[in-house]
Design goal:
The protein is an alpha+beta fold and 173 residues long. It contains two helices and nine strands, in the order αβββββββββα. Strands 1, 3, 5, 6, 7 and 9 form a six-stranded antiparallel sheet that branches. A three-stranded antiparallel sheet has the order 2-8-4, with no helix packed on it. A hairpin with a 2-residue loop joins strand 6 and strand 7. The longest helix has 29 residues.
């Protein structure tokens, strides 16, 4: 294997490792939790939603920094309505909590919005131990395809380096 191809394989190996590891470590820092707006719990507000899937999450601002333990989401309810249009369909989501700088995010629902437009959001519940709590409407970014592509690049580069090493050993003998 020529030096240029070996360098290319090493670069592919490095990019593959970064493409797999970086989203695992830092993916939750780059989420668009409240891209379409947020409503205080309890409260009422208007948000402009696109047609399609919208991720709904609980956001709580903690006074104690999260404590590193499990996250307790208080009991709350929400409705999303628009006159003249069928109400969005809620689907429960089981997602992990993310806590950064005293702010806790927990995915709660994925809502199927049939028509884009301005919707009225009404929430009810109690804060129970949080300084403030909100219902965020946005999109979670999913890095599955990026990680799959990076994994394929990683394996291909590793195989290329191993084959080159094997050929070099047989050529030396």
């Amino acid at each position: 294997m020529s030096t240029a191809l070996r360098r290319l394989a090493v670069a592919g190996l490095v990019l593959g490792v970064l493409g797999v590891v970086v989203p695992l470590l830092f993916g939750d820092l780059f989420q668009s939790w409240d891209r379409f707006g947020s409503v205080e719990i309890p409260g009422h507000g208007s948000v402009r939603l696109p047609a399609g899937a919208v991720d709904v999450s609980f956001r709580g601002i903690s006074a104690d920094g999260g404590g590193g333990g499990s996250v307790a989401v208080p009991r709350f309810s929400a409705s999303i309505e628009r006159s003249g249009t069928a109400d969005p369909v809620f689907h429960k989501v089981d997602g992990g909590a993310v806590s950064v700088n005293n702010v806790v995010h927990v995915p709660v629902w994925r809502v199927a919005v049939r028509r884009a437009g301005t919707y009225e959001v009404t929430t009810s519940g109690e804060d129970r131990g949080y300084v403030a709590i909100y219902l965020d409407l946005g999109h979670r970014r999913h890095y599955g395809r990026l990680q799959l592509g990076a994994g394929v690049l990683l394996v291909a580069s590793l195989l290329a380096l191993l084959v080159a090493r094997g050929r070099r050993r047989t050529a030396d003998q």
